[in-house]
Specification:
The structure is a homodimer. By secondary structure, chain A is mostly helical. Helices cover 75% and strands 0% of the residues of chain A. The longest helix of chain A has 25 residues. Chain A binds a DNA duplex through helix 1 and helix 3.
Chain lengths: 209, 209
Amino acid sequence: MAKANATRPPTRIQREKTEAILAAALDVFSAQGFRGATLDEIARAAQLSKPNLLYYFPSKEAVHHALLTRLLDTWLDPLRQLDPDGDPLTELRAYIQRKLEMSRDYPRESRLFANEILQGAPRIGDQIQDTLKQLVDEKAAILRAWSDAGRIAPVDPHHLIFSIWATTQHYADFEVQVRGILGASEDGYFHDAAQFLAQLYTSGLTPKG
Amino acid sequence: MAKANATRPPTRIQREKTEAILAAALDVFSAQGFRGATLDEIARAAQLSKPNLLYYFPSKEAVHHALLTRLLDTWLDPLRQLDPDGDPLTELRAYIQRKLEMSRDYPRESRLFANEILQGAPRIGDQIQDTLKQLVDEKAAILRAWSDAGRIAPVDPHHLIFSIWATTQHYADFEVQVRGILGASEDGYFHDAAQFLAQLYTSGLTPKG
DNA sequence: CTGTTGTTTGACCAAGCGGTCAAATCCCAC
DNA sequence: GTGGGATTTGACCGCTTGGTCAAACAACAG
């Protein structure tokens, strides 16, 4: 058995196949949700037989879990980059821009998380309570400090973060709706979205002189 | 057969059972998505046997479709109420408030739609392209007129609507995450959210003097 | 070349799925 | 009360699901 000895380094084939499986799983899970996805579909997308897939991961749940934990770090990177020593409005605009680019460049990842949260986060609830809450509280403290110092308008920092998440991720999670309303052909709506959000948050957060 | 003659008015039992099924289906579909939901689970929640449920609806898809079309009108009501003759900022604040109250009072409906859109709206795509787009374009024209007249700041009206949807529905669709970050006990966060959003959009949309 | 380990697969299984059907039961107007 | 339509259900069907297993096959070190 390959996986029995955990200390042995992964072979080339193990690395390649594991990667292919996770890539295929991202496609399927993000489009169908956990319960809607099937191992057959993931295996087919990864060009493997189902028993072969289960040779690399012990269960469907294991594939899903590996995918989520692997992507959580990437997903939180934009927030992590928020610099307490930078100019507040510049930092926030940059954060919004980064998040919007994530929605544009990694919509499947966004929908993967959205699916999981929507259904009550039954398979990632712990990590939300731990990693995520800790990071958000830390960054909220920075926002509060800026707010208290009069460098941005006085706002609830948690709800500010929520609103940035919501407005940016909307373009990935509700892409079908956005395209349906703006017209399927129009492809450059991310530029308009960026401009709108930059303006909204700039005007909305500039402290009153 | 009961349903064979479509012209006959529904009996008391038909009204009651149909209602019970749709109520149960809302619970299950909003929590599990279409593919994740099962007829057995819906039937159990409605206190019916599965064949009995299928006596009132011809298929799982029919239950889902009936639920979506029945709720779409309710869901779009807040936007429909946007009054072109009112004061722009007052109208927008009222719209945001109504949408936020929808998220607070009807989170299952919000998640039902979110699930459907997230997965590409395969069962409601037509109605988005028709009813929804028409309403949004109509209201966007009002916003554009306000914007052109200098009564609100110059913003892209479609993206303004998207941002209001996103920020308000976030509290229903991502409820687990919100509660996980704010602390499960705290229950009055809708008040804080309302205040935050009112301030953001008031400052963000007030035209520059 | 050879043996050992790593990899792949076809056949299979129990459980659950959406849906059907005939028979039983219920409801209510007459 | 009773007859006929409305309602309910247990048994069942074909199919898909996640997962198992033994056997076959490939890779690679010696």
